[in-house]
């Protein structure tokens, strides 16, 4: 089969030039050695193992027997924490190399490998210690879904196939990493959930216990959201920022509270949009498609007063 | 590399305690042996094989030749039905163990393995017998997509890459399982389609022939929906429940008709929301973003009369 | 374990009959040899390799070192272009077989294998030549995302985990295939991105540099859209067709401009719906949930004037 | 590509007839359900895991750390013993079905599944209990190889790459299974070693500590051999049976002592052949290519007195 | 980690020069397109499938049930014969390219692709037709091993783990390919068996029914051997050529009968060496280590009269 | 299924105790971190890649085209040399840790990681530089096999399926590593060849060009052998040591010349045994089964004068 030679040299050269121009524009130092970046595939495997650790008889290996739970967890923890340590270390080393956010550098302003390792180790320990509490929170979420959906027949059905359950599981893991200063890893985990479920929860969001998202496609929950206990949310709900503030130089401002506070026992129906640092008072019910940019007192019932659709037969 | 020891014993103990508390709260009997639960990965493989059986020259193995279709189908059917039988059996055994919905128990109120096997076998046979009719329904769906989308260049393009086609294929398989009293398996298959396409069709929904969903992201179709023939739906359409009814004790009521009836030849444009047991009459067209909670007579044209947006330059 | 025999012969026969009826209805010639169709899995592998070629130190193999970039690219290009050639050849052969769109046939009206190979070869060369420019466009998209999202901490974070970045990368590759007359392959690549991100960009859409989609779930961009430079779009935005035009015989008309033109520097917030061949003037801002079916002059600010929601406490 | 149709029906029919004739000739009962036979692949995986359990820091997973040895062993033991149990159960069930050797049958002369399970369980427990002693024996073998080969630079080199070490490791595991009445499994393990090393040790052979085989290709050690401590053997040595005895009916007799006894501290050089139930006395040295069919007193030096080869220049 | 740059250009250049010199020395035409050579891995997969086809309930897939045998065989045959066809075609095309042995070329002395395909197709059909007879021969071999080895406990043990059984199975398949003029494929299959068992049977050897090799390591059976029915052979037996004949120009002569003829019911014990075109008469027994280069009459008993070994204590 | 609990704690404890005793007996320092040992699997992959680099169009990837050879080699070299570097580094670090042979330690007698890396890097560079010469040597070996075996039909058949060719290829690679002071790696590669072919060549052996081993099972070539050009060897030939010398303390002496010197153009037939530092003069022919322990002048013909076997009919 006469396949062309593709003139590969030209294309290689063109790509080389494009990379060169980009690196110039970014003032990137020349890299030596490997690329030293966290890996999506590695994180996926880590999160899968963590799910098995949290729910061994439901999400662990198919041939696990209950009397072997603890041994399985100990062995898998040892493996997964070392794998996570490596991803944290890669992230910190990457950030030190490019001086991103809080970086670790020695007295010559060079990345300090020993300090990076020590800090990675400490971060992973903190993460590991949080796992039992995460399990308890997730138990409350399972129960909330079971009680909140008339179609749910058992708690195990929730764990095995509800996308909202997957999203909150990934989020509770990612949120601990976010709190421990590896936001890049946290974000990568959040995007794994986003891709699988269509639910986009920023790992910075604080979410109370017994949280339930039904259907979920199109849900967006922003970085500085604070969500209370027993909150229920349906598909296509946005808890977003009203607008982005810029400083005098016109640069986007970061790290200020710009997303809603949702108090305990609130229900938000499909398609509702709540923008800005507003507070939805305890026990309120927000109807479908409601558009909200101001505070709501506790126990309110909000209904979008849509104009009647026009009907012609 | 000085990697910490992670104090694994503490974490294992903390997780053990959390599991213990959960199982107490659920009054779970102690489990012996393996976990005996259906598996998402096994179901994914089963559905992939079923797609190959239904459309051997399009979704079967790449090296299949047309003269080998029947042998391929016979061999794969034998394999896939045994695999499905095992998943059905696991599901029935699981339900008997936890006394979920209709359970099979012997005179000592214990799960009856022989009856479970017999019932699983009978359910799988019924499922298998439905496959030729499913193929015919799916052929009508392919044709509907081809005729309904100006961008479609061939019926094969529809089969190979339309997400709506994937969603309805999975649904028609899942719906037969739902009708045969393995709703957990049906739901797991529906969620595989949901994750891949963003289209969330509850396996209980009854859907007529020549059904077409375009784009599809964010579509939600509820458990008790009844959809006629030649219906077309666009992205972000919700056919949902208006509210959940509770009994006198405050518990959610289940198993009553709470989702729309959509009659033949209806078109529903993107973002429309139709809630409750309302009927959309034959041949009606529901415009984009329409919000509907009441019956619509046949051949209606419904348009959301949106207020003019405010423009400032 | 007494597993039933499944009466496979009946089912095989039923499926055979269904296939026969379908092929009759489609006037399909009997196929000999293999199925000769492009493969989703093959395309996925091709696009993965292309991502590595475009961004070797970010999306290439984990153990790549910067001094080996060019050799890696040359080797992978050679491999991936041959693989792509095979997919293009399969597509052209398929189209010739079924007389779809522009087909290649010899003087006896039979598919002409040599011409198909030659044309496939030429199409792949054109595609390959476009790669350096695609890289430059994607660099502008990365920069746009970094500057447009207060949560983005580095350009690498954008490349590694933003779904909008994945969608535009796949689109820019697919668009070149669309322009080179293999729309089926282009569409299959677009659907890979759609499934992973919930963002549905038709490969025909023309999109300028520095394009940024945030969150992205539910975005739909139609086939004849023209989008300028530095445009920013949020989740659930639709740039769609108003209605489908039919000819006198009632057949859908194809290939006419039916989607919006969005000029440079436009921002479109979440949930906005813009339908038909309308023009959104340069520098305009379209607010959330706006519903638009007419032209907008440059530098407009459009806000949906929603009726106040009703509140009851 | 015009590939023939292969007239498969004829071949299928021919094979069917051949199988039928064979089964008739063997008086085989018709089988229902699956084939219920132990699997070579499963045994290979089991032996690999057992090697890791015996030498975790040398043959266990590459990323194991010494502080995690016990947890790794506990987890892997739990997994591997269950896998071995299944292979033992399949073997016993197979033997009961075909009435091979000691079979387990109920009062109706049918295989008794419960008894088979109980016996399998007990056999595996006995096997598991033997593992620490096997490790101690293998340590003595490693030390013997290190001391016996001038080319060996470390004990770890012996463990990692000496074929004789692999053969004796597999043998010591297989021998325990042989003693516990699952000779078929034992034989399958022995053949795995035979294929990898060219060393053929029947699992029935009794071999003392500090055993060393150098090079090893072509070594054959028969079923009833008894080998003392600190024995050293080179390639192509045969410890075989002189002839097979038949009973009056002309059938081969089984289960009588027909292979050599090799006492402590014997060395047997390459190519020596020792046949029959003879005893090689303690501390003897058997030269290369020696042919022996009678007893040898302790501390003998045996040299083959070869006729001078003829030389012509 | 400071890894060197390896000066790859120099090495690539050095290798290029070495390849160039070799190709010059071989008068090789420049190759275009792919390498077009049969593949060891592909053949391994083909032989594995053929083993399953021949013994479906013993060497087929673990989950096969007896009632599905024929469907499994038909499906697998269709797949494996097409795969074999491709290997045969590659071999014929390779031989035509390099003018090896009988080559297929058109009137311009170029390889003729159509003729090659036709011939490959015909060869595969002949091979396929031979499968039922091969099964019957192998059944006789299984029975011979069971009856000839006092350690064999069942016919299935022979099939599952005797290396001699694997070797004769591969040989009987390879021999049919050898007879059908694809000796390269035949040789590759023979070497797969050689590597797994240490038994080296040239695919040209003609071997009668009820053949049994015990232990087997080091057995060599030459290309022109003729072996009768019910022959038994032990390890390290050589049936070889005495010397290679050269023509007047000093080139090795090929294709003449140069290996032994072994008549029915002969037994040859371990280490015996029989060289040249000699005949071992029916029913003879050749003792261990015997060295034979002349004919032996029927029913002889041959024993090597070894000089007594010297013993010193 | 009632599977026992296996009393795993006891077994884990027993194994722990056995490991403890062994480590005590070996005066092993406690290990921290991972096991840091070279890996058989990694070496297998490295050697496979090196074979592809040496013979790209014969042993490289199936889809390689000749015009892409150099790019393939450059890319694969870059990858494989880094992988080899890691194995060399692990080996040196391991040897430094246990003070085996020449170890690299800093002024505190601790392993010096930087020096180890530097030395590993230098060793790999030397190895890489040797590849073109290895290719030329292997070309001479291919030619020798083709000319020396009447059954060989093409040089490619030799490369694709002769076990002797595999053995000499692995040996020539291993020998360079042996010369560069990583004998453990060299030995592991030699054992990979030994396991696949039954040919056991110590990596220390020096072997001239145009070397050919036919059949090969059971060949043993010792560490200090020196073999000239154009030597041909058949199966079961041993070139071994006569006896092992011990020093006054009774320890085995190492590193002295103890194996044969085989001069140019010698042929050694099957089963010959040559022991000790003897010289086989140029052009000699050693007959089958000859036993030799003294020098042989050039151009000798050595034939074993076997006593006639006894024949009884």
Which descriptors apply to this entry?
five-stranded parallel beta sheet; UDP N-Acetylglucosamine Acyltransferase, domain 1; 45% helix; 313 residues; homohexamer; alpha/beta
Give a written overview of the molecule.
6 copies of one chain form a homohexamer. The first copy, chain A, is α/β, with parallel strands linked by helices. Chain A has 2 domains: 35-199, serine acetyltransferase, domain 1 (Orthogonal Bundle), CATH 1.10.3130; 205-308, UDP N-Acetylglucosamine Acyltransferase, domain 1, CATH 2.160.10.10. Helix content of chain A is 45%, strand content 11%. Chain A has 9 helices and 15 strands. Chain A has helices at residues 8-25, 40-54, 56-59, 69-98, 113-129, 131-148, 155-161, 163-179, 183-197; strands spanning 200-201, 206-207, 212-213, 220-221, 226-227, 232-233, 238-240, 261-262, 267-268, 273-275, 279-280, 285-286, 291-292, 301-303, 310-312. In chain A, the strands form 3 sheets. The first copy, chain A, has a 5-stranded parallel β-sheet with strand order 1-4-7-10-13. The longest helix of chain A has 30 residues, at 69-98. Chain A is globular. The model of chain A has no long low-confidence stretch (mean pLDDT 90). The C-F interface holds C 63, 65, 68, 71-72, 74-76, 78-79, 82 and F 63, 65, 68, 71-72, 74-76, 78-79, 82. Strand 15 (310-312) of chain D pairs antiparallel with strand 14 of chain F.
